[in-house]
Amino acid sequence: MNLEERIQAFATLGDFLSQFSTNGIVKKESIPYNDLFFEGFKHQLKLAKEHNGWFTNENILFTLDNWSNALTNSNIKQFVQNYSFKEIDSKKVAIIMAGNIPLVGFHDFFCVLLSGHNVLVKQSSNDKHLLPYLAKYLEYAAPGFKDKITFTEGKLENFDAVIATGSDNTARYFEYYFKGKPSIIRKNRNSVAILTGKETEDQLSRLSNDIFRYYGLGCRNVSKIFLPKNYDFENFFKAMYNWHPIINESKYANNYDYNKAVYLMSEFDMLENGFLMIKEDASYASPIATVFYEHYESLESLKKKLDTDSEKIQCVVSDNLVDNTIVFGETQNPQLGDYADGVDTLSFLLKI
C-alpha cells in the first residue's frame, strides 16, 4: 500500500464513523461495507458500555464524532504534508494502550499504520471492544492492511519498537522492560486552566466541558485551576451548573460521596455545590468530582512554574495568557497534530 491508499482507507473509516454521532445513530446510504459492519458496530457500542460503566453512550459517541471529523481525506493530507514518507522497511510496532477514555490509543494506532509499519496492539481490559472492530473494517476498506494489524492479550513478543501509555509507576517498568528498543513511554499528565476573574460566562461554561467530559478521567481534562488572590468562585460555580445532571450517574456519585467524606473527616477546607468539589492543593492530579486550585502571585511567576512542571502537564487552558494555550472548551477536541505529551509520534515512526 502506498501513502495515498492508506490515507483513503482511514478517510473511508471516518465516513463510516460519521453515522455514530452525539446527534444520533443514523445509517447512511453509500457507506462502503455498511451492511456488514453497521449493526455489528452498534452491538460493540453496547458491549463497551456494559463492560465499562464510565463509557456512557454520550462519551463513546463524542469520541466517535471527533474521529469522524478528524479522519477526512483533506485533514489527513494536511497532517502528513510536513513529513517525508520515503519507502520504509516495515517494522512491527507494539502499542500498549490505556483504557481511561474510549479509543484513547487510536491516535497511536492511526500513526503506526499511516507510516507504513505493522502494529501489534495490547489493549486495556477497560477498552477492548471498539478498536478490533474498527480494525476489521479497515481491512475490508483496504485489504493491504490485512496481516499488518495484530491484537494480543498475552506477552508482547517479536516487535521492533514500542509506544506505551501508563502511570508513572508502570512507566518505570516499561522503561526497564523495553530498554534497547526505540520507544515512546508516556506517564501521568494532567491539564490545567489559568483564570484571572475576567472570564466571560461563555468561557467559564466552556471550561466546564474541559472539566467534566469523560468524568474528568482523561489527561486532557482540566483537573487544576490557577487563580489570582481573592478569586470569587460565584461565577465559576454558576458556569459549572449545566453539568449538574452528572451527579445522577452512579459511578460518579459514588466517587463524589467518597471523596467528600474523606475531605470532611480530614477537616480539609473545600467548596462544593452538590456535584463538584474545589480544594486548594499543590498537586495536579485531582480525584473524580474534585478540581484542585492554587493561587498565583503574578503571571510571570506562574509561567515559570508551568515551565518547571511541564512534564506533568498535558494542556494549558486560558484566554491566551501563555504560549501554546488552548481556548476554553477545546481540550477534548484535539486535532491530528496535537500529540500526547508533545512527542511527535509520526516523526518517531518514520525514523525507526
From TrEMBL:
One function term, GO molecular function aspect: acyl-CoA dehydrogenase activity
UniProt keywords, alphabetically: NADP
Superkingdom to which the source organism belongs: Bacteria
A GO BP entry: bioluminescence
Organism: Bizionia arctica
Listed name of the protein: Acyl-CoA reductase
Keyword NADP included in the entry's annotation: yes
Family matches, as Pfam families: LuxC (PF05893)
